[in-house]
Amino acid sequence: MPGPTIGGMRMQGFMTTKEAAEKWGITVRQVQNHCKSGRIKGMQRVGTNYLIPIDALKPTYTFVYDNGKDKEGTNDQSR
């Protein structure tokens, strides 16, 4: 795979967010969010484009749920 073309230059060793999304089975937007959050090692930004190393691993996404309750199960705002 020759890599994406940005401004007429071939970027060998990198893939686009679309290619990464297809490879990892997630949406392009999720890949962009991972890039923006710095979760993809070796990622480079060129203008408005993200370039992701071909050998980059799919980042793990951890979602922290906050239900607004303290340890006793009561709402913090009710006090």
Describe this structure in words.
It is a single chain. This protein is of the alpha+beta class and 79 residues long. The protein contains two helices and five strands; from the N terminus they run βββααββ. The strands form two sheets. A three-stranded antiparallel beta sheet has the order 3-5-4. The protein has a two-stranded antiparallel ribbon with strand order 1-2. Strand 1 and strand 2 (9-10) form a beta hairpin. Helix 1 (17-24) packs across helix 2 (28-36). The termini are far apart. The relative contact order is 0.18.
Structural class: alpha+beta
Strand count, sense and barrel status of the largest sheet are:
3 strands, antiparallel
What sort of overall outline do the alpha carbons produce when their principal axes are compared?
elongated
Percent of residues in helices comes to: 10-25%
Question: What amount of the residues lies in strands?
Answer: 15-25%
Radius of gyration: 18 Å
In terms of per-residue confidence, which ranges show pLDDT below 50 for 5 or more consecutive residues?
none
What's the helix count?
Answer: 2
Number of strands: 5
* Terminal Cα span: 60 Å
Helix-strand sequence: EEEHHEE
Q: What oligomeric assembly is this protein in?
A: single chain
SSE blueprint and pairings:
Elements: E1 5-6, E2 9-10, E3 14-15, H1 17-24, H2 28-36, E4 44-46, E5 49-53
Antiparallel strand pairs: 1-2, 3-5, 4-5
Helix pairs in contact: 1-2
Features:
two-stranded antiparallel ribbon; 3-stranded antiparallel beta sheet; 79 residues; alpha+beta; 22% helix
